[in-house]
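Hi everyone, sorry if this is the wrong subforum. Our group has a chain we'd like a structural model of before ordering constructs, and none of us has done structure prediction before. Sequence below.
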Amino acid sequence: MNRLEELNQMKMEIETMPEEMQMPTLKARVKKRVWRHRALVAVRNVMITLVALMGGLTIGVNTSESFADSVKSIPLINKLAAAVDFSGGYEDAVREEYVTKIGKVVKTKYGDVVLSYAMSDDSTLVMFFGGDWEKKHRDLMLSKLTDADTGKEIRWSGCTCALGEKEKSWKVLDPCWREYHKHVTAELELSKWDGKKGEHKVLETVSFTFTTDKKLKSKEFTVKKEFEANGFSYRIEKVTMYPLSTRVEVICLDDIGTDAEQTLGMKFSLVGKNESRSVIEHNGGTVLGETIEPGHYIYYLESGYYMMDSGEVTLCLDEIDQLPKEQKEVIYDSKKKTLTDAKGELKDIKVIEERETRYDEKPFEDGTKGKWLTVEVPDGIIRNVFSYAKKPDGTLGDIEHWCGESDSHYESFPIAEDWRDEDGKICLIRNYPEYIIKTDIKIPLKK
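Answer:
Right subforum, don't worry. Here is the predicted structure as C-alpha cells:
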C-alpha cells in the first residue's frame, strides 16, 4: 500500500467510522495509530484536499450514502465471534484476533455485498459478508476461488452458501482447501431459491480480490494408532491442528484397493481441560470428510489449536459408521414396492409411492423420462439415502437431486426409466450405514 492509499484509508477509518463502531477498544487502536503518524497529520490534510480536487475518485465513492450504509454493516471484532458460533475453533481464532479486515464493497441491483473480514490457514478460508442483499432473502453462493498471484483455480470443498436473514447483518462462507493462499479472488453468485424448480436462480455475479496476511504454523501429531471394529481394521495416521480447523487422517485398511467403501464415516471430538470440540456444522449442514484416495480419509473438526495453550487435549473416536460391501446394492421392485439387499427386505426404509410430478416439478430438467420415488426414513438417518443407481449396462446414474417433504420422515428423489431392468427393477447404491458402532478410543495429544 503506498502512502496516498494509506492516508485515504486513515481518513475513511477515522472520519467516516460509524457511531456504533466507536467502542473503547477501537478508539484505543485509532489513537495509537494517530500517535504513530502524528508527524503526518498536516500532510494527510493536504493530500486529502488534493485528492478531492482531482475528482474525488476515492473519497467520492467511499463517502457516498450507500457506501456509508454498507460500512455500518461491517461488524466489530468482538462481534465476529457471534457470527461463527457454529465453530468453537473459529470463535477462538476471532478472539485471538486471527482476522484480516477487508472492507470491500460490490454494488448490485439487489443490494450491496460487503466482504468485511477474512481469515485463513492451510485448511480453511473463512469470509464474513454483510450488506443489504441479505434483507431481501437472497442467498450468496461461492462458485470459484482463484490464486490472485498465479491465476490458477483453487480446489475447495465444504459449505458453499450463506443464507439471507433479516435478523442478522453478516453471513459466513468457510470453504476447505488444501493449502494457504495469501492473495485470493473469490467469485460468488447472488441467487434466489426457486421452490418449484428446486434450485437456486442466479441473479448476479460478484467478485472480490483480497489478502489475508495472518498465518500461524500448524501443530502436528503423529499418531499411528491401529484398532479393529466389527471385523474391520483401521489406523489413525496423524492429527494436524490449524488455527481454524483440526484434520484427522485415517486409513481404513480393509478398504484399500477396493471398489466399494465399507466404512462410510467416523465421528471424532477433541476434549480439553475446560471445553471440547466436535464436527464443524454450518447452515444446517456438516462439513464432511474428504477422500484422498481409496481407503484414505480426512475428517474435519473444530480447531483445538488454542485449546492446547491450556494443556493436553484428547482426541476421541466416538463413532464408526459401516456398511458391508454386500449390502451396498439395494433392489427396488416397483411392482411389490419393496427395497431389498443381500440380507432381505429393508426394515428401516419403506417405499411410499411413485409419481410423475412433485408440486408440478418434473424429476429431470433435461427431459429424461422418469418418476419421483418417495420413501419413508426413520429418525436419525442422513438425507439422500441412495447416492447412485446402477444401470442395466453397469454404469452409474447419479441421484443428485432429492427433496425432503414437509414431514421430515419422507424423502423424494428422481428415478429414470432407463435405470430399470427387463423386470422393471432398479439397483440403488445405498448411502447410509448398517452398523453404527460407538467406541471409546482416546488418544492424548501433547505439546
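For your construct planning: The mean pLDDT is 77. The chain is about 15% helix and 40% strand.
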